[in-house]
Amino acid sequence: MKMKSLSAVLLGTLLMSAESHGNVTFIKNNTLSNAQVKEAALYFNGAVNNQTVTWLLSALAEIHENYLNVENVDIYLNSRGGDMDAAYVAYEALRKSPMKLSMINSAMTASSATMIYCASHERYAMPLSQFVLHPAAATNEKADYLRPDQAKRILDEDENYNSMFLKIYTSCVRLSDKEQNDITWSESGRLVLKADEASKRGLVTKGNKESRSYLLTYYVTDSQG
Known about the structure:
alpha/beta; 2-enoyl-CoA Hydratase, Chain A, domain 1; 9-stranded mixed β-sheet; signal; hydrolase
C-alpha cells in the first residue's frame, strides 16, 4: 500500500511542472497543451504594493497571451492591504480585464486589498474568511514636528484617499450613511465582516467557494524567504 501511494506521488510530480520568476511561481499539468487549459487560478498572498501588483498583472497578462482558451481565472486573495496607489492601479486594470475574473477571499481581505476584490462582479469567499473596511492613513515623513502647511497637506492627501475608498466601497457593498462616514473617518469605526455578513451586504455576490485543483496555477507573494 505504501509503495502504491509513493508511486502515485511520483507520477503526479512527473505530470506537473513548476517554474518560478521572482516571487511568481506557476504550476502546469504537462500532459495537456496550452489550448486545453480552460480555467486557471492565481493565489495572491501578501501586501499590496507596486511590486506585488506588477507581478499580479504580469501573471494575468501571461495567462491571457499563452492560454488563449482560458475562460475564467479564479483569484484567491489573502492580503491585509498596503499601498493605496498600487491598489487603485490593480482595481482599474482588473475591472477592464479581457478575461473573466472571479475574486475569492481566501482568508483575509482588508484595507486597500478590498479595492482589488471589488474589481470583479464575480465575488466569492471561503466560509471562515473576513473583510476589514477602514479609513486610509496618510504617512508622516516628518516624524518630529509639523508646520501647519505640512499638516494640511497630510490631511488633504488622506481625504483624497478616503474619497477613493468611499467611491469603491459604495459600488460593491451596502453601507448606511453613518457607516460610510465612520469607516472613512476613524479607525474605531472600522467594519469587520465575516463571509455570511459580507454576502448579506452584497460584498460577496456568489456565496462560498472552496479551494480546488487547477490545470494551471500561479502564486504571487511578497515573501523574501
